[in-house]
Every structure is written in structure tokens, then in C-alpha cells.
Amino acid sequence: MTTIELAVFDMAGTTLNEHGDVYRALRQSVEENGVEVSDENLQTWMGADKVEAIRSLLRLGGHAGDEATVAASFDRFRALLRDFYAATPPEPLPGIPEALAELRCNGVKVALTTGFSTDVAGPLLEGLGWATGEDGNLDAVVCSDEVAAGRPYPYMIQRAMERTGTKDVAAVLVAGDTVVDVEAGAAAGAGVVLGVETGKLTAADFAAQDGAQSLPSVAEIPQYLGLRD
């Protein structure tokens, strides 16, 4: 395996425990329009750009998914998520801060990508005390509204490579807790693509995606890369 220079991780469900509030907010913001969101369709669109997820879930529920409704539903999603996060603040999943620090200490840059827009992700990370730069614990953060299209397209991963000066995609590891995380990693041609089982999906679920590898948690990635005994 090529030496990994950049690890790109999803946020909610992968590095952060946000108590399922993204699922709740996404479902409620769509169902308030009088459509039903199935568990299967909700899972399919988790991890994707939230505007696109709302549009698709509306249409899957029989709604026209017109732009005015999509925009209003996205505003409602953001408001709900702010309320949910205020009531129960997100927190790092066990072992994640230590794993991120260990990766960076071993020369592996760390980037987060997310289906959140910048105005949602920024305050969330600030509340955790997570920041980019030499004094922070991250090298880059890329949000879905900073690229032409979110997952399963590879553009956020490519932007993370750009921001960290990573030239060789074979030296990139991508990990996330949803199908679209894995699909985006594969679309980018990342050297290592992993599902992690800290969200709703199991090892068997990931294996069904063209035999994708999985780990119980991002916390195990330093060991996976041979950075610890």
C-alpha cells in the first residue's frame, strides 16, 4: 500500500456523535411538507449534500420538489439542527481526538468533509474547539456548498487534496459511515476507502457495496496504517 499522506473523514457519525440529530432534522424538514420519508430512503441520502438530499427525498415521497419548497425545507433543516444541537451538543466519538492527533504526529494530514453547508459546519466545529492550521487539530475542512456537487461525487475529497497540497490520490485514505462516503472515495480513486461502523451501517452493509472494507471506528485507523503496535 502506498504511504498515506492524507486522511479524509466525514463528520457526523464518523468523527462526531451528534446523537442522530441530522437524521431527525432531515426527516422532519421533509415530512413537514406532507410526504413520508422511509428509513431506507433516509439512509440512502445521509452523507449527501443536504439540499440535494431534501430535493430527492421530497420527490421520492411524491412531491414535485420545486426549488421554493427545497429552499424553505433547507432553512427549516438548519433551524431544527441548531435547536437539536443546542439541546444536546455533538461530541467527538470515543478515541477520535487521540486518533487525529496520532495521524498528524506521524505526518498524515487530516481533513474533514461534510454534507453540511459552511454556515452549519463552522459553528459546530467551533463549539468543539476544532480548527485548522498548525495550532488546530485539522489540516482542512470542506463543506458541500464549497464544491459543484457533494457526495457521491469526489469533489470534496479533491478540494481537500488541493488545500493540503496532496498530489497523489493513491496516498489518500477516505473513511465515512454512509454508502455515499464510500462511493465518493471510490469515485476519487483514493488509495484506501473504508466504511466505519459508528453510524447506522454494519460491516455486512459495507461489504455489500462492491466488497468495501470497514472498521469499527476511525479510532482504529492509526493501527490499521501500522502507526502503532
TrEMBL record:
The keyword Secreted does not apply. It comes from the Bacteria. Gene3D superfamilies: HAD superfamily/HAD-like, Putative phosphatase, domain 2. GO terms for biological process: DNA repair. SUPFAM superfamilies: HAD-like (SSF56784). GO terms for molecular function: phosphoglycolate phosphatase activity. This is Phosphonatase-like hydrolase. It comes from Brevibacterium casei. The lineage of its organism: Bacteria, Bacillati, Actinomycetota, Actinomycetes, Micrococcales.
